[in-house]
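Q: How would the structure tokens look for this protein?
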Amino acid sequence: MSGGSASLTRALAIEYASDGIRVNAIAPGHIETPIAEAYWNKFSDPDAERQRAYDLHPPKRIGKPEEVAMTALFLASDEAPFINAETIVIDGGRSVLYHD
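A: Here is the predicted structure in token form.
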């Protein structure tokens, strides 16, 4: 997620908080989508490339679209009434690892 997107999320959240409007962002990492499939299929061994992506992540897989959707639903629900001005990273822990 860019610094501009994070700053916009925080600014809007503060601006509209007194109106009862919460603004949060979701920053997904690698998600298994048709775009990811198309990328892997460009390689001579798509399965090996997919496995390489999986191996970069602590759970040894990448995210699923429904996992991103569950986070969005949670943030929009009454179960998250005091979460505001946050960016939630959905990457299975990948962003906290050291990497080249």
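The two ends are 19 Å apart (CA to CA).

DSSP finds four helices and two strands in the chain.

Upvote if useful.
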